[in-house]
Amino acid sequence: MVVATVLQSAQASLAAASTSRLGAAGFRKEGSLGAQCRHRSIGVVGGHRPCSIRAAAGTCSKDDQVLPNAVTKALQKCATCVAVAAALLMPLSATAADVAFERGPVIPELSVLISGPPIKDANALLRYALPINNKAIKEVQKSLEEITDEMKVPGEKALGPVERSVRQAARLFTQNKAQILADLAPAKKQEGEQVLNLLSDGLQDYQKQLESKDRSIVFPKQKELLRIVGDVEEAMVDKFPYEIPEEFANKPLLKGRATLEMKINVKDNPNVKDAILQIVLDGYNAPVTAGNFIDLVERKFYDGMEIQRSDGFVVQTGDPEGPAEGFVDPATGKVRTVPLEIMVDGEKEPIYGATLEELGKYKATTTLPFNAFGTMAMAREEFDNDSGSSQVFWLLKESELTPSSANILDGRYTVFGYVTENEELLADLKVGDVIESIRVVNGLDNLVNPSYKVGAA
């Protein structure tokens, strides 16, 4: 419904869009009206043709005119175009000519979906995405996460609220330690108890450090403690929580999580030579997609491959040389594909093969949303939901105003991980930069049905 509304509104309003707004949206100007998208469509795996939106008004030539159905087709082919078309529909600010758009929902019906600021931190999103239900540890986590907003106050004024949050986290932990301990998975009990001791000591140490009124210690210690909280929560996951559908059960599957290191050789950038990024793949919520990717990583499929798209919206790679637009499995001689795979909050297993829009789940919230800078997802053909193979992209934005279920990507593409360290370096990558290597740091033992081990298959 959201995309359809954008399409309908775009047909009526695109002709009136101003040249300045087209330029601000990242499009190449063509005369006084009209623009051509420079982006390779996320939806087209291996698509090399630019998609275009041309607007006609007044005395524009016949060649520049666009029929409504042509606009619709252009918008349907490119998710970026839909986003820009939506942006074009927002009124210009009457008070600031240098600001391209007003900060507000593009479509009126979206306002009912926005209930609060989205979580933009990749590590926090991963913590909330774990298949656990322990309110006690989540309250400790929430208290520590609130420190981020509290530190937006300048000077020492921020330290009072920070100290209160740390004291609250310590109090909640002490009061509910037995409940937290009881929820540790039996097989991870000993490991979990050790991590709980680290958390207890860390919270006491944090309170003592804050007595110095030194702002510089706040974020490093917060990050350390939230990492420990994440380890506690991981120790609560007893086993993989659901059965994979039979049609996908023999594919490479990541039944858990894995941490990867991606090293990229950056060309023609005096400030960055090598970009080393840490990626966490989430197989709890996208086991088929994450399993496919880590299996390709172990095959060294991406090693030596260039970045193939970098346009300020996404960084994308994974299109191999030759006519194939994905990974050709030597065992079959055919492109190996994975289905669209979307986990919705409150559901016990992912939805396969259909977008949330197609299912009429307009208000559903995805467990792995496109909220964080460096969100990692599988590219696919726009009109074939199950055509993902090897092409992946990383989002170069944070969700400032539109939480999960209120943007054009959630529920339409499979998110299966996040860049959790050095994600800001993604913005420095250009087409032609080379992926030197991607290696698995930990979690490879969570991969089942690894095809890379079966001879040359």
Automatic annotation (TrEMBL):
Q: What is its EC number?
A: 5.2.1.8
Q: What class of enzyme is it?
A: isomerase
Which GO molecular function entries does the Swiss-Prot or TrEMBL record give? peptidyl-prolyl cis-trans isomerase activity
UniProt entry keywords in alphabetical sequence: Isomerase, Rotamase, Thylakoid
What superkingdom does the record give?
Answer: Eukaryota
User: In what residue span(s) does the PPIase cyclophilin-type domain sit?
Assistant: 277-457
Q: One GO biological process from the UniProt record?
A: photosystem II stabilization
Cite the Pfam families for this sequence: CYP38_PsbQ-like, Pro_isomerase
What the entry lists under InterPro entries is as follows: Cyclophilin-like_dom_sf, Cyclophilin-type_PPIase_dom, CYP38_PsbQ-like, E_coli_cyclophilin_A-like, PsbQ-like_dom_sf
The name under which this protein is listed is peptidylprolyl isomerase
Species this chain originates from: Physcomitrium patens
What gene is it encoded by? LOC112292015
